[in-house]
Specification:
The chain is an all-beta fold. It folds into 3 domains: about 60-275, Integrin alpha, N-terminal (Methylamine Dehydrogenase, Chain H); about 305-395, Immunoglobulin-like; about 400-575, no CATH class. A 6-stranded antiparallel sheet has the order 28-30-38-37-36-35, with no helix packed on it. Strands 21-27-26-23-24 form a 5-stranded mixed sheet, with no helix packed on it. A hairpin with a 3-residue loop joins strand 11 and strand 12. It is elongated.
């Protein structure tokens, strides 16, 4: 069974490429065979041996084929990456075919190591001018030496390392491949070097890295990827799979192949293929000589909640599906839908078509939520089948607004008097915001409120417990408790809610404790319990929305409640809220 395979121009007398493959013959041995087309007009169906079986005392783990010395046929590089199996030495060997080097196991370049094992190699034009380069990677310690080496062939020195082209990264790369993601720039079409590596215990570390030795410019920060923290992407390749003149990047993991359709422009534009793989052999080439055939590509545009949705409310996501200008039959399904999403407006149809997905955020806390829409089609020309549409929904804190922002009871003393004779009065506050948002309220004296606020910083949130204790928290982990005089009481009607108060001359009652149209909070002055000898008194009403209003912006509102006895002209106090008897 073949374990390695490569292709290239290994016989100048036959049009097209030849195939080289290798297989294991024992624990520490393997063999290589080269086959070619059986006629001068090969159709890819008939093959014969070009170089019969060659036995090696190495277990070759990797092969690459390419033009290295600029003459005659392509060259072959073989790598044994396991130092333990091969007498404690890994090996990189380069062979020509036209001089009998491969057939006679006589490499024109070879390097072995027991400490810095060779891993992979890629042949291609990475530096403008001259022959192709050979980019080889090896496994080194965390302190070096260099683990990325660039070789170039010359008639005088043979295949030798380029000066200044030894690079060290930690940890060492596990795979290297080349891709011309920029296309032709200034008449030059050089390739970029891509590296895959495994990184433990660091989900944010770069696992797909790029090195550019050409005369074109690329933004590495937009191309390099952390990939998945499980390090499952083992192999990569580059090639122009969509016919746009620029190479795409293809990565392979166990059971999956990912294509980056536009690596120079948008690394988020990917195509996922779930397919059985051997986790090690990935090549890109024009196998049918028919060039690129576009096929039909399903596309989706998600709208409706671009600006998010308030916690406690509801909305709709719209997914507009197109099929490249064609009517494509499709089926749609939400994958493991949560209770707050769906059902779909329709389970299928013909493109172009717009699906709608109801979103119920009535019980959701602020944050980002994700759902996945899966589109399938029975049309064999669809190239991205199945098609996954990820949908991200930002649930924003619900809002609560209290108007007016102060409850003031203003009286004038009788002529010649220094104090007032207050009467029972009410101030009506309107409670507006996200419908369905619950809130609680409590009245405390100002020293108690000030003490609590002084111990807290930005982003204050809180809740009122059933025992009448108000708990306040901030974003820095600080907390404060305010013990009020009474518990929350709901009247027999089940409509009005009497809120606790630690002062006996102010009470507060809500219509329902839930934001609905015309929701009101009535603050009442009990004149009989007021010490009218003090002309200016203030307490604080604290209103707390439920957790759907979040902690930033604050879900707590502080409403000053003031009794004022003054002879000030009316013009100076008209800005205060109107009171009712």
């Amino acid at each position: 069974t073949p374990v390695i395979v490569g292709a290239g121009d290994l016989d100048n007398n036959i049009p097209g490429d030849e195939i080289i493959y290798g297989f294991e013959t024992g624990t520490y041995s393997s063999a290589i065979t080269v086959i070619k087309g059986d006629s001068l007009t090969p159709d890819g169906r008939g093959w014969l041996e070009h170089i019969p079986r060659i036995d090696f005392e190495n277990n070759w783990d990797f092969v690459d084929v390419g033009q290295i010395d600029g003459s005659s046929t392509d060259e072959v590089i073989l790598i044994d990456d396991d130092a333990v199996l091969n007498q404690n030495r890994s090996r990189l060997s380069a062979y020509r075919l036209n001089d009998g080097g491969l057939a006679n196991n006589s490499p024109f370049f070879s390097n072995s190591s027991s400490n810095n094992e060779w891993r992979r190699v890629a042949i291609g034009d990475v530096e403008p001018g001259g022959n192709n380069e050979v980019v080889a990677i090896r496994n080194t310690s965390s302190t070096g030496p260099s683990n990325i080496l660039i070789f170039k062939y010359s008639s005088s020195a043979g295949l030798a390392e380029d000066d200044g082209d030894a690079i060290f990264i930690n940890p060492s790369p596990r795979d290297v491949f080349l891709a011309n993601i920029n296309g032709e720039v200034n008449g030059v079409s050089d390739k970029e070097i891509f590296l895959l590596r495994s990184v433990r215990n660091n989900a944010a570390a770069i696992r797909l890295a790029v090195i550019n030795r050409g005369n074109d410019s690329i933004d590495k920060s937009k191309i390099e990827q952390a990939l998945d923290s499980d390090n499952r992407w083992k192999n990569g390749a580059g090639g122009d799979v969509d016919g746009d003149g620029r190479d795409e990047i293809i990565l392979m993991a166990a059971g999956q192949i990912r294509v980056y359709n536009d690596p120079i422009g948008n690394m988020n534009n990917t195509l996922e293929n779930v397919v059985g793989t051997n986790d090690r052999s990935l090549k890109v080439g024009d196998l049918d000589r028919n060039g690129f055939t576009s096929g039909i590509e399903l596309q989706a545009t998600v709208t409706g909640l671009e600006n998010g949705i308030a916690a406690g409310s509801s909305g709709t996501v719209f997914v507009a599906l197109t099929g490249g200008g064609q009517n494509v039959a499709f089926n749609a399904q939400l994958i493991n839908p949560p209770a707050w999403a769906g059902p779909l407006s329709q389970a299928g149809g013909l493109t172009p078509f717009t699906l709608s997905i109801p979103i119920d955020a009535s019980t959701l806390l602020p944050g980002t939520y994700n759902i996945n829409l899966r589109i399938t089609s029975g049309n064999s020309e669809v190239i991205n089948n199945p098609f996954s549409v990820p949908i991200s929904i930002e649930v924003k804190p619900a809002t609560i607004a209290i108007t007016p922002s102060i409850a003031a009871f203003v009286f004038k003393p009788a002529e010649g008097a220094s104090t007032c004779t207050p009467e029972n009065q009410d101030v009506v506050l309107n409670v507006d915001g996200t419908e369905g948002l619950n809130y609680t309220a409590v009245v405390v004296d100002v020293p108690t409120a000030d003490t609590a606020r002084q111990s807290l910083q930005g982003g204050i949130s809180g809740k009122l417990r059933e025992d009448g204790v108000l708990e306040l928290h901030d974003n820095f982990g600080n907390s404060a408790e305010l013990d009020t005089a009474s518990k929350v009481e709901v009247t027999a009607s089940g409509i009005d809610v009497d809120w606790p108060s630690s002062v006996d001359w102010i009470t507060a009652t809500s219509t329902s404790g839930t934001i609905v149209p015309n929701e009101q909070l009535v603050v009442s002055l009990d004149a009989a319990n007021l010490d009218a000898s003090i002309n200016d008194q203030q307490v604080m009403m604290i209103i707390i929305a439920d957790a759907r209003a979040g902690a930033a912006p604050e879900n707590v509102r502080f409403v000053p409640v003031r009794y004022l006895c003054t002879n000030a002209p009316v013009s100076l106090i008209v800005h205060l809220p109107v009171v009712r008897n």
